[in-house]
Amino acid sequence: GLERLFEIIAANVDGTMPAGENWHRELLEQIAMEIPKIRPAVISNASFLALNELRGFRHIVRNVYAFNFDPAKMHKLVKSTPILFSNVRAELMAFADFLEDAV
After folding, report:
1. Beta-carbon neighbour count of residue 24 at 10 Å?
2. pLDDT in tens, 28-68
3. The whole model's pTM is what?
């Protein structure tokens, strides 16, 4: 769901979407960067790092068998996700305020 929101921001606010095999990571990097005279960073560097870690996990889930999972890493991701999504929600709300003020 977050990735879809980031796609909408990239396409409609930034006017550009990454392409190619690394587009998921490039999109996340784009959303975490300020674009001067267009918009502030949508998410913080801390959120970028945490979301990028989840992105990497999603890649493993889609492309590797479950027996390759690291239980300790999975536990850390599961435990940190509620706080991460609370932080990202607050950052997205702040970005929505920026958009409303820009109109």
Report:
1. 16
2. 999 999 999 999 999 999 999 999 988 876 665 555 555 56
3. 0.82
